Model the fold of this input.
Amino acid sequence: MRREHLSGLYRVDVYYLARQLADVPLFILTSVIFMAILYFLALPDQDAQRFFMATLVIILVVQTSVAMGYLGSSISPNATTAVSVMPVLTTPLLVFGGLYGSNRLRRKRL
Done:
């Protein structure tokens, strides 16, 4: 990738956007397979609408995670730096997203 970028063939953002779009079918397929196994084994309420909503949520989470991984790899010069930079980027998202909130506060918001 570095050789093509240095030769001026294409920009880094175009490369990662194309890579993200090329990976979409694979991630959708694996997400649907994952949810088909998990949903019907773990949840007693087997409603088609709820299954498709849960599958959509999983697909969106997977796409967001992949995009965050691409972000970390594009702003880091090597793998060691990426491993140390990504927790700094993702921890505020976990904290402010409500992961560490109490169940009492979650019930109020719902």
